[in-house]
Amino acid sequence: ATFNYFSRIDIPAIVINENFSPLISLKMKTRSNFNLELEMKKSRTLAISFTDYQLNETKGTEYQATVGYDIKNVKNPFYKRKKGKKKAPTSAKKNIATAAASGGSGPVQGLRQLSEKGDLKVRLDMSYRNDITQIHMFDQQTQALPTRGMKLLKISPSVEYDLSPNLSMRLFVDYSNSRPATSIANPIVTFNGGMRIRYSFN
Question: pLDDT tens, 129-170?
Fold first, then answer.
């Protein structure tokens, strides 16, 4: 007797994902307004193909670091005290202080009421990521072949200052450097920076 067995389930490929985001994390803040954040992330993807008998392995490791420092009550260089103005009564001073805290009665009034002192925030963000994809052949005793991958380095310092309760100004610089793992792609270096002004409506 001859028995023919046909499987009812066809599995062409199997994919396994591993992701630790983050694997290690550290956040610290001191009484002197110093901030420090450190993170380490790891990931791996295994894709097994039973049609061409190969294994695609993608591994990634990323390191992130953030350093910040807040300086309170920094003198505003754009603030000018008006001279020759009569002193307002105590009740009027309270109304002016309330209007300044709330941004005034409108956007124009909020723009004119710059604070004499504001908070200065200094921040530095850095990250490094290494990704690589390799192919392992089942029926060949050869080393793994890298098909794609990249080493990416980012550095972004910035300074932000509060001109008023509603108005802030930020200066930033972004630097990026990517190095491919194969000779197919070319290294890329980008550098940009500028100033950003933000106004919030209350």
Answer: 999 999 888 777 777 788 889 999 999 999 998 888 888 889
Closest CA to 66 of 22, 127, 14: 127
Closest CA to 182 of 136, 150, 140, 141: 150
Q: What is the DSSP letter of 108?
A: H
What strands lie across the sheet with 54-75, from one edge to the other? 13-29, 34-49, 54-75, 117-137, 145-162, 167-180, 188-199
Q: Which among 64, 63, 52, 44 is positioned nearest to 132, based on CA atoms? A: 44
Distance from CA of residue 101 to its chain's centroid?
Answer: 30
Paired tokens of 87: 């002193």
Q: Which residue, among 36, 37, 44, 38, has the nearest Cα to 61 in the 3D structure?
A: 44
Q: What are phi and psi of 99, to 5 degrees?
A: -65, -35
- Alpha-carbon distance 186 to 142, whole Å? 26
Are 38 and 65 spatial neighbours (Cβ–Cβ below 8 Å)? yes
CB distance 50 to 12 below 8 Å: yes
86: amino acid identity, one letter = K
Residue range 73-116, pLDDT digits in tens = 888 777 776 665 555 455 544 544 454 444 444 444 444 577 77
Q: What is the pTM of this model?
A: 0.71
